[in-house]
Amino acid sequence: MIQFSNVTKHYKRKTALKEVNLELSLGNIIGLIGENGSGKSTLLKLIAGLIHPSNGEVTISEEKVTRRIAAKVSYLSDHDHFYSYMTVSDTLAFYQSQFADFNMEKAKEMINFMNLEAADKVKHLSKGNRSRLKIILAIARDVPIVLLDEPLSGLDPLVRDSIIKSLISFIDLEKQLILITTHEVMEVEMILDEVIVLKDGQIIGHNHVDDLRMRENKGVLEWMKSLYA
Ligand SMILES: Nc1ncnc2c1ncn2[C@@H]1O[C@H](COP(=O)(O)OP(=O)(O)OP(=O)(O)O)[C@@H](O)[C@H]1O
């Protein structure tokens, strides 16, 4: 479904990804982990078509990624770009006007699930509730690929927990592939099918989480540390 063939990405003099080969298929939640600056966000942005490889090719269903791919990919960046004068409900309506695949019914269900108030102004939301709203906007699109860049960073444990629960409840695993970058390895481990470890722009490990547990008797964090060592 998603394929990286020998992908290298340079930013001026910095090489963020080096000759990456990767295949990911639908129906999985995949964690992308690694130290700061290892290339996680770069990998997501290449799939979202926001940047392009310096060498090699990224394809989705055998089609080369261009900006048009946005129709198949929902991307939650590590920043938020809300119009702060809007209410939560205005923001949903705005997304519905921008994306033909926006599922308003699912978005409203998620608003209830996360105890957000539709009438609240975005500028009055707490940091945790802004993050919840961001997740809702990313997940409520009926697209095959959902990319979540650091959805848990800087949030308290209760908010992290509610976001993880909402992922399990609202993702359509028959039809969607979810790729999550995170440093909160222990917390997301329970929802991951696969995990990819990046170091200095290269993939140093890619495994099924169940296999790690059964064959190597290791948790994801322990496995990552052993690869880094
Ligand atoms: N626009 C840019 N211009 C120059 N260098 C960049 C740019 N974006 C990223 N880099 C560099 O590329 C490398 C990989 O960055 P990337 O953001 O992909 O890493 P990351 O694993 O997501 O890091 P973090 O965990 O800190 O978010 C880093 O060394 C970073 O400084």
UniProtKB/TrEMBL annotation:
GO terms for molecular function: ATP binding; ATP hydrolysis activity. The keyword ATP-binding applies. Residues 2-225 form the ABC transporter domain. Signal peptide: none annotated. It comes from the Bacteria. InterPro entries: AAA+_ATPase, ABC_transporter-like_ATP-bd, ABC_transporter-like_CS, P-loop_NTPase. Pfam families: ABC_tran. Keywords: ATP-binding, Nucleotide-binding. This is Multidrug transporter. It comes from Alkalihalobacillus alcalophilus ATCC 27647 = CGMCC 1.3604. The lineage of its organism: Bacteria, Bacillati, Bacillota, Bacilli, Bacillales.
